[in-house]
Amino acid sequence: DLHKPLAGKRILVTGGGTRERIDPVRYLGNDSSGKMGAAIAAAAQELGAQKVTFIAANATAATPPGVERIEVESAEQMLEAVMGRLSANDMVVKAAAVADYRPKHVFSRKIKKQEDSLMLELERTPDILHTIGHSGYSGFVIGFAAETGEAAEYAMDKLRRKNCDLIAANNVLLEGAGFGTDTNVLEIYGPEGLVAALPAMSKQEAAKRLLTLAAERMAAHAA
Ligand code: C5P
């Protein structure tokens, strides 16, 4: 069915932004609303997916009807939620803004004000997309790249390093793109380079174009 190119497929989508605890009342976070992830989950349903799971990190965006939502807070929790469900899914779309760093020590009590400055030591979080790409997973993997320039170079580098099938890059400095907006401007990269440069459109429409392209490539792989 041309209108249901994801028929029979199980899709795992991550969205929102992770929070990395500092103490019981504080965290390091980012501005991701989860709108792009929710739009992808909705588009997957619309394109006929058999099952859609949305792993949401602190996302204010609503869950599209029929989609299973799993709540996580941190990068570590997202890693566990994703890896535990990987083999039950045919495609993973990593639209979440995952923190790159987290506090090395999590204080069990609220940090008290000091006279002087306070040093917070940070350590790297696990790279979930990289972990998926190097896990031997045979499904289709789509990553995102929020850039502030030179998207092509960074996107291709990400695609190769993290071993993805597609990377959707958006310049977050462009008007009508990025965090919190209802529209996005996506450039889609595959192993061969730029595959599609989409003009500004609703996140819903951009999600549909991205997943339609992914479905075509999945079908070509299977053939
Ligand atoms: O390297 P960068 O953070 O720009 O890559 C963005 C892509 O990698 C997104 O798809 C994001 O969800 C994913 N990512 C991840 N785990 C991290 C950092 C990024 O899965 N710790």
UniProtKB/TrEMBL annotation:
Reactions catalysed, as given in the entry: (R)-4'-phosphopantothenate + L-cysteine + CTP = N-[(R)-4-phosphopantothenoyl]-L-cysteine + CMP + diphosphate + H(+); N-[(R)-4-phosphopantothenoyl]-L-cysteine + H(+) = (R)-4'-phosphopantetheine + CO2
Enzyme Commission number(s) of this protein: 4.1.1.36, 6.3.2.5
Molecular-function GO term, any one: phosphopantothenate--cysteine ligase activity
Biological-process GO terms, alphabetical: coenzyme A biosynthetic process; pantothenate catabolic process
A single GO cellular-component term on record: phosphopantothenoylcysteine decarboxylase complex
Needed co-factor(s): Mg(2+); FMN
Pathway stated in the Swiss-Prot or TrEMBL entry: Cofactor biosynthesis; coenzyme A biosynthesis; CoA from (R)-pantothenate: step 2/5; Cofactor biosynthesis; coenzyme A biosynthesis; CoA from (R)-pantothenate: step 3/5
Family under the similarity heading: In the N-terminal section; belongs to the HFCD (homo-oligomeric flavin containing Cys decarboxylase) superfamily. In the C-terminal section; belongs to the PPC synthetase family.
Function: Catalyzes two steps in the biosynthesis of coenzyme A. In the first step cysteine is conjugated to 4'-phosphopantothenate to form 4-phosphopantothenoylcysteine, in the latter compound is decarboxylated to form 4'-phosphopantotheine.
Protein name: Coenzyme A biosynthesis bifunctional protein CoaBC
Organism: Xylanibacillus composti
Lineage: Bacteria, Bacillati, Bacillota, Bacilli, Bacillales
Gene that encodes it: coaBC
Residue range from the parent sequence: 190 to 412 of 424
